[in-house]
Amino acid sequence: MLVKKIAFGDEHEAFIEDRLIDGVNIIFSDDNNRGKTLVMQGLMYSIGYDSIFPSSFNYREKYFYSCFNINEEIYEFIRKKNSIVAKTENSIQVFNSVGEFRYYFDQFVHPVPKILKDERLTTVNLSLLYEIFFVGQDSRNPSGLISKGQFNKTDFKSMVYEITNLSGDPLNAEDIKETQEQIKNLKLKLKDTKKKISLIKSNPDIAELVSKFYDSERVQEKIKNINSINENISKLRRSRQREINRRLKLQQLVSELNSLNRDLNEGNVKCGDCGSERIVYSNNDMTFEISNVDVRNGILKSIEANINQKTDIIWDYSNDINRLQNTLNQELKETPQSFQEIVLYQEQVVSDQSYDDEAFSIKNQIDSLNEKFTTSKNINESLKADRKSLDKTIIEEMADLYRKIDPSGNLDFEDIFTKRDSTFSGSEEQEFYFCKVIALNNVLKHAFPIIVDSFRDGEISTLKEQKMLDIYTQLNKQIILTSTLKMEEYSTDKYSSDKLINAIDYSKHADCKILSETMSEEFRALVLGFNGLIL
């Protein structure tokens, strides 16, 4: 996967970077605020990353473009706000959200891992995936993720396991011991609480019925299970209906565009107010001129692809609903006919409701821990051994890289994330990120380029920097780095003299002003290449 071109701007001003090569690229300048970070963040933003732009830059009003060579096929992406358009030689697709674009990315660009999150198999967001190879300049935190969102560092490690086919949800030895101790203590607490609960004597028939079929805990558990299943079915139905509504709107749009084709064959369509024959299609964030039949047909293909995607999503929701319905039917099948009568008198079954609530809560905690414990024990022991081996391999790779760039350094690698209270001095934080990103590349053997903004952050010494560049060069893949040089370094052509490095100088850019009018025409041509997309 090679980055060929990066661009961003609007109808008035723009910037285009097309000097990148398949090798080590260093974008540098003799001072800060020359646009290096905007280019890096803009590149990642164009493909779905939750980029961290400077507060003074109004990124929501700009278009962000990128061009990639992926398996010898050219992919172009353009994004404004949450909308993304993807274009290849034979297709163009419009996505109204990064979430929709993720499905396309997973199918055509690179697999997006699915991990267990909140007891549900969840596709990770693109920002989490990109942290395998991208290190931004701002919000760095070696003890956690750079891009904060619904996923955390535990999810990142689960994603790494999934990429290496080591997915699952086992407990480690400490977790198992802790879980066993929790279950033991909760059982003692439950026993003590149950002594305080007595069946009422005002309805001896119900008391006898309960003792024969369900005690109060089972009644409450059955009610909760059924309510939970019904609630989940309702949520899935609402989600499915939203997708059905979106598909219906897209189908109506197709009908309108097809009708427009017929109108244009029989005569001209004009605006009743201004008389213009210019016709546009808009998804709120982006607008396409569709007066041209070829452009309109391209938009139709994109919409039809989205309709097919919605159909797949609706089918998935229906399957989930059917599975829950089967579970609900099983629950009802196992419920005796007298269950409704028990429910009717459930408030009278317990002498003190607060004790019942407490016992029920404790019982649920015990069941949850038992289920987690049982699941963990059932996971193949070889999987845990393989995971441990993978962790060890990554850590050893990080340590080996660290010894190469800083033989006398004091960093001790125990994990791909540091402890929360770890303190770094000088360049140690940047050295940690270097070792982490390169180790993940070497172990996972992923196809992404490596992108590091401000790779010398922390005043890395010249000797360490050269060692890092030697390692980058030996990877034989695309590397994109940025660096701010001191005046004495800049005056000696620090990077330009190295034949193995593609040095790209940003020093001539105005302070905090990388966008210019001179590139606006070329940028407009790039945008118009997306089937008549209008700036």
Mean pLDDT: 82
CATH domain class name of the largest domain: Alpha Beta
Q: What's the count of strands?
A: 16
CATH superfamily of the largest domain: P-loop containing nucleotide triphosphate hydrolases
Bulk shape: flat
Widest sheet: strand order? 2-1-4-5-6-7
What distinguishing features does this structure have?
about 525 residues, alpha/beta, Rossmann fold, 6-stranded antiparallel sheet, 5-stranded parallel sheet, 16 strands, flat
What does this structure look like?
The chain is of the alpha/beta class and 535 residues long. The protein has 2 domains: 323 residues, Rossmann fold (3-Layer(aba) Sandwich); 206 residues, no CATH class. Helices cover 50% and strands 14% of the residues. It is built from 16 helices and 16 strands. Strand 8 and strand 9 form a beta hairpin. The protein is flat.
List the helices and strands and how they pair.
Layout: E1 2-9, E2 14-17, E3 24-29, H1 36-46, E4 63-70, E5 73-80, E6 83-87, E7 92-95, H2 98-109, E8 114-117, E9 120-123, H3 126-130, E10 134-135, H4 153-163, H5 173-194, H6 204-212, H7 216-266, E11 280-282, E12 287-289, H8 293-333, H9 339-344, H10 346-349, H11 353-378, H12 381-405, H13 428-444, E13 450-452, H14 462-474, E14 479-484, H15 487-490, E15 501-505, H16 520-528, E16 533-534
Helix pairs in contact: 5-11, 7-8, 7-11, 12-13
